Amino acid sequence: MWLTGFDAPSMHTMYVDKPMKGHGLMQAIARVNRVFKDKPGGLIVDYIGIAQSLKNALGNYSGGDRSKTGINQAEAVAVMIEKYEIVKDMFFGFDYLAGLKGEAKDRLAVMAGAMEWILEAQRKAAEKETSAEAKKQAHKRYSDAVLNLSKAFALAASSDDAKAIRDE
Are 149 and 90 in contact (CB under 8 A)? Predict the structure, then answer.
């Protein structure tokens, strides 16, 4: 249905889990990559390796279009590590690593503590702000950082660096 051209709502992410090629692949990517209001583009998460099919489909287009296909894996990993460090720094002083192992009750206790840690940090940061918008941003800082990390992780998920931080 997403590929037939009906008036679909704006999509941000497409997860590719079946083979596509040619115009069908190009059309699917175009549906996700459309700009809309404050949406600058889309994210294609490739689970099966369609990069070569995309390059073949782009063979019908200009050299400039072909050169913009895909992303540099090293750049994706660097961004992911940067976003990971930002989120990790938000937990400075809190031992969340105990939540990665142990029994379920122990993991839940760490998770509850982590939520309280972040909420308290957001409250303190918001207290320091003077404008309503800045206070709102202080309360959104963690969720925005985690969202950015999730997006970066999706781009670099097959790398060894991503596998090393996956559980954390």
Answer: no
